[in-house]
Structure formats: C-alpha cells, structure tokens
Amino acid sequence: MTKTHIAMPVALVLLPYHYGRHAPEPLIPMALGPRAILASSALLSGLKDLGVVPAVTEISGVDDPSASESAGQSGVDVEGLFPGDQMSRMFVQNVALGREVRKARGRGSFVLALNGACTAALGMVAGVSEPSGEVGMIWLDAHDDAMTPNESVSGLLEGMPVAMIAGRCWQAYCARMEGFHPIPEDRILTIGLHERYESRVPRSNLPGSRVSPAEIAALGFEAAIDQALQSLAQRCSRVYVHFDVDVLDPSVARVSRYMAEGGLTMDQLVHLFGRIADLFKVEAMDVASFDPSIQPEAAETIGQAIVAAVKAFCGPKAAR
C-alpha cells in the first residue's frame, strides 16, 4: 500500500489554557489537554508516517495583560484590560493565538492548534478571517456554543464563541482583537449538537446551518453531511474547522465529562474530514476541550483523528 506523503508544512500551535488559566487545578483539567495530545504516540507516529515533522509553538506567559495592555489604576475614563479578570486573560491569549496563526499561514503552513478551550476559536478566527467574510467555519461539537448573554443564566463565555464569531454578541470586545472579523452566519455550519439539556428550552435560531441528530435521522449520516457541505460550498471555498472532541460518541473514547450519547464514530469523523477536503481549502483546524483526567488513553484516539484530518486537509485530494 502506497503511503500518503504530505508536502505541505504543518505548524502545530498549543494554547494550554482554560477559563483563561493554565495551572493544573481540578476545575480546569482541559488546560492539560493540548500537551497530553501532543505527547500521544498516535499523533507523533501518525504524522511521521505522513512525512510531517511539524513546527511546534507553545503559547505561554499570557496569563494576564501586559503593562501596555493593562488599565493600571482604576479611575475615570479607564481604558485597557484588567489583570486577573477572566475575559482580559482570554483576550490576550486569543490575540497571541491569532498572531501565531497568521505567522504560520504567512509561511505557507497548514495550522493545527491544540487548545484547551472552545473560546480559543476567537483567536483562530483572528488568524484566518478576512474583512470580506470569504472564509467560512465548520464547527464540530456536541453543543451549539451559541448562547448570548441575554440567553445564558450562567454567563459562561465558553457557551458563547459561535455567537461571538457570528457577530451576535460581544462585538466591541471581539473587534479589539487584531485580525478578527465576524464570519457571516450563512458561512457557518455546525455538526453534532447531540447534547440535550433538560433544563433549557431548545433554541431554533442558531447561527448558520446544522447537521444534528434530526437531519441524520431523516437523511442518513453521509447524505446529511453531503447536503450541508454542498450548500456551504456555494457560499465559500475556504474554511476553518473547529473540532471539539466531545463531538465523538462516548463509545469511541471518554474525552470529557460533557459528552453525550449519539456522537460521531471514528469512521464517520474520517468520512467527514474527507468530504470537507473534497469541497474546501481548509485554512486551519483547532482541537479543543480534551480533559485527560477522565481517560488519559483517549489522547491516542484524538491523535488518530488529528492524523486523519491532516491527511485529508493537506493531502493530494484536498481542495485547492
């Protein structure tokens, strides 16, 4: 069997933060996810088999705003960011991520980011989006992550990144991130959405289109995926892919405490990556929300999935 050789350079960026912090505390184990995935033999050996030796950059030292970014002493007409504040920390971390993504793309590399949190998608978008809105987004997740402050009872920012990327909320906050431009809603596709919240009224007005259990039940997985991707391809030819690992079914691997029955199998995920590559040029992909404290060996499964994505997105069949 002929091995696939990837000629395109791959830049691997780590942002090991969750809720704006990286310390290995019990409440933020997802901050440990990026390093656990990077250490998996499946990822390293799989990339080596593809002929890929990625350039690895870990973003660190961005736990708080710098002096130039900070508001300093509070007072009248305060400007800038506030040390110790979660949203300030997320801001500077996403600015740093966006900068690394742009630098890597400027070198002609495919960007693969291992992120602790889904809010790191803001930095990914800052690295790939354009004022023209020509780049779309494919969001793989058990949850919609499209809450707005008016809908959220917790105020949890981790439940809002899709709404923020679509320009539905926190517009001024996002606009301050260098390179960030909202992605038009008709260029956003969410796949997964199999989590069910008994305490929350279902929301039908989500940004963009979706492939949820309802569409899969009606059409079958492959047909539902193909219909949604073909529709998105009519509006954009380039995309950024967000892979929240809880889109996987728990039978595949236990990647976090937020998983739900009805997720994707590995075969379905590999098929999805292949169809994305057939129809789009993938500008970058990030992998988020792995909690290695649940099932450490799940890092190997995630590594296999990442290798399949790199093979599809950077291989000879990838759309250009």
Overall description:
The protein has 320 residues and is α/β, with parallel strands linked by helices. It has a single domain, classed as Ureohydrolase domain (Arginase, Chain A, 3-Layer(aba) Sandwich). It has an eight-stranded parallel sheet with strand order 2-1-3-8-7-4-5-6, with helices on both faces. Strand 7, helix 9 and strand 8 form a beta-alpha-beta unit. Helix 7 packs across helix 8, helix 8 runs parallel beside helix 9 and helix 9 packs parallel to helix 10. The longest helix is centred in the first third of the chain and has 21 residues. The radius of gyration is 19 Å and the shape is globular.
Key features of this structure:
320 residues, alpha/beta, 8 strands, 33% helix, globular
In short:
This protein has 320 residues and is an alpha/beta fold. It contains 10 helices and 8 strands. It has a single domain (10-66, 82-314), classed as 3-Layer(aba) Sandwich (Arginase, Chain A).
